[in-house]
């Protein structure tokens, strides 16, 4: 099961809802934006693994957004548009799109193309295990564990708990605001500050039972961070 974060930049709510549903079924995390400027803000802040990008967008069109994403780096991008002209496809590919789908599209095809693009981006190799102190995250197996003094302890996490800890493990020692964690990891309708706190409380309890409670800490008035635990008191 995949845990990659997909940013959907699309101004039609129905299309966003359908894509989010299909990506979520395959284990992807999703976040969406309804205009180009917001999409670029999300891309800068959340560092998605892949972008599904419409061409005709408010504020900034898809070509402008794609050009900016390419200036920033090599995030894989799939262009999704109602335009079927070869020149439009060539324009997208020239600017740096990794693939191109034409509306109306089959959402299953979009997800399949996303998987293929991500495989190409990683050279066909599985993403390596992430380590933060005694914590090990295996994104491909959707598992988290703690290296104890005598054995490795598997954490029994809910999907949302895994998303949260895996997302934070990508940038250890950084403070994550609650709003960012909501955008990146919590499903729509579950996006309340107190819900984040509840998930974090459960995570801290499970980490404590496994002997690693000090690696997850709260930062008063801001959010949470995941550290290696050195020099911290439980």
Commentary on this structure:
By secondary structure, the protein is an alpha/beta fold. It has eight helices and twelve strands. The strands form three sheets. It has a five-stranded parallel β-sheet, with helices on both faces. Strands 6-7-8-9 form a four-stranded antiparallel β-sheet, with helices on one face. A hairpin with a 2-residue loop joins strand 6 (130-132) and strand 7 (135-138). The longest helix has 17 residues, at 193-209.
List keywords for this structure.
about 230 residues, alpha/beta, Rossmann fold, Arc Repressor Mutant, subunit A, 2 domains, five-stranded parallel beta sheet, four-stranded antiparallel beta sheet, 8 helices, elongated
The total tally of domains equals 2
Beta-strand percent range: 15-25%
Structural class: alpha/beta
Can you tell me the CATH architecture of the largest domain? 3-Layer(aba) Sandwich
Task: State the gist of this model.
The chain has 234 residues and is an alpha/beta fold.
Strand and helix map with partners:
Elements: E1 5-9, H1 13-25, E2 29-33, H2 36-46, E3 50-54, H3 62-72, E4 77-81, H4 86-95, E5 99-102, H5 107-121, E6 130-132, E7 135-138, E8 143-147, E9 152-155, H6 159-169, E10 176-177, H7 178-185, H8 193-209, E11 216-219, E12 223-226
Parallel strand pairs: 1-2, 1-3, 3-4, 4-5
Antiparallel strand pairs: 6-7, 7-8, 8-9, 10-12, 11-12
Helix pairs in contact: 1-5, 2-3, 6-8
């Amino acid at each position: 099961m995949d845990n990659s974060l997909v940013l959907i930049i699309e101004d039609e709510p129905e299309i966003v809802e359908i894509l989010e549903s299909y990506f979520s079924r395959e284990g992807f995390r999703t976040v969406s934006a309804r205009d180009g400027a917001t999409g670029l803000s999300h891309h800068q802040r959340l560092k998605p693994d892949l972008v599904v990008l419409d061409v005709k967008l408010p504020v900034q069109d898809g070509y402008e957004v794609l050009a900016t994403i390419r200036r920033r780096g090599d995030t894989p991008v799939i262009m999704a548009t109602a335009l079927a002209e070869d020149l439009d496809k060539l324009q997208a590919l020239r600017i740096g799109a990794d693939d191109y789908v034409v509306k109306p599209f089959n959402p299953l095809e979009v997800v399949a193309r996303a998987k293929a693009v991500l495989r190409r981006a990683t050279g066909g190799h599985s993403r390596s295990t992430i380590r933060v102190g005694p914590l090990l995250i295996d994104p491909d197996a959707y598992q988290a564990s703690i290296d104890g003094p005598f054995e490795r302890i598997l954490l029994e996490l809910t999907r949302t708990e895994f998303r949260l800890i895996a997302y934070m493990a990508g940038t250890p020692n950084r403070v994550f605001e609650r709003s960012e964690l909501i955008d990146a990891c919590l499903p729509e309708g579950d996006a309340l500050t107190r819900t984040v706190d509840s998930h974090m409380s459960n995570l801290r309890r499970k980490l404590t039972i496994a002997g690693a409670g000090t690696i997850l800490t709260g930062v008063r008035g801001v959010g949470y961070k995941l550290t290696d635990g050195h020099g911290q008191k439980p």
